[in-house]
Design brief:
The chain has a single domain, classed as 3-Layer(aba) Sandwich (Rossmann fold), CATH 3.40.50.620. It has 230 residues and is an alpha/beta fold. The protein is globular. The protein contains nine helices and five strands; from the N terminus they run βαβαβαααβααβαα. Helix 2 links the parallel strand 2 and strand 3. It holds the Pfam family QueC.
């Protein structure tokens, strides 16, 4: 059994990487990061450092040509501003449904690409793709491609299309971010190497949706986000 972890350089995917290494051994694990036209490459820089930390191979794929037509606020060329409110506040104001940081079918696109990569680099093995989706991202249907239903459906399609050679594993699909961080703290994940903020720069903004969720997840575990210490 081999594993390829979708690694953005953030909290969720890095926790998945730590879990995969713990369960399968680093010799059976690889990481892959996707450039899809993000406004900054801070997370990708972090993903490289994290792969080095865990001493696993690190692949990089460029899918930006597919998403260059999107006006999602996270992407280069977008005319939309990133909203500096929690996801809960955004959903309360606009109702349930897509938030403006939703990248069109991003998880579906990445899972499909990595399924192909997995069969290519591990042709003689069964491959598990680790995805860091969790229940908080799916709440209020903010990110439809993070829901348990979506993950299960994609997993079936990928298994069918790869002769059962590739499996999708989303270990935190039914957990919230605080529960995910608890697992990571128990595994001594180097969260100081990660980056989640939608804005670039050297210090997290602390006010975008993902920053707010990250800060809260550490607080609920009686911990402080290492990026905010000092």
């Amino acid at each position: 059994m081999k594993a390829i972890v979708l690694s953005s350089g953030g909290v969720d995917s890095t926790t998945c990487l730590a879990l995969a290494v713990d369960q399968l051994g680093r010799e059976n694990v690889a990481a892959v990061s996707i450039f899809y036209g993000q406004k900054h490459d801070k997370e990708l820089q972090c993903a490289r450092k994290i792969a080095d930390y865990y001493e696993v191979p690190h692949y990089e794929l460029d899918l930006s040509q597919i998403l260059k037509y999107s006006n999602c606020s996270l992407l280069q060329g977008s005319t939309e501003d990133i909203i500096h409110k929690s996801y809960a506040e955004q959903i309360e104001e606009q109702g349930e449904g897509m938030v403006n940081t939703y990248v069109p079918f991003r998880n579906g696109l990445m899972l499909s690409a990595v399924a192909s990569l997995g069969m290519s680099v591990f042709p003689d093995d069964t491959v598990q793709i680790y995805l860091g989706a969790h229940a908080d991202d799916a709440a209020g249907n903010a990110y439809a491609d993070c829901s348990e239903a979506f993950v299960n459906t994609m997993a079936k399609a990928i298994s069918l299309g790869t002769y059962d050679k590739v499996q999708v594993v989303a270990p935190f699909a039914t957990n919230n971010k605080a529960q995910l961080v608890k697992v990571g703290l128990d595994l001594n994940v180097p969260y100081e190497l990660t980056w989640s903020c939608y804005e670039g720069g050297d210090v997290p903004c602390g006010t975008c949706g993902t920053c707010i969720d990250r800060i809260k997840a550490f607080e609920l575990n009686g911990a402080v986000d290492p990026l905010l210490e000092g």
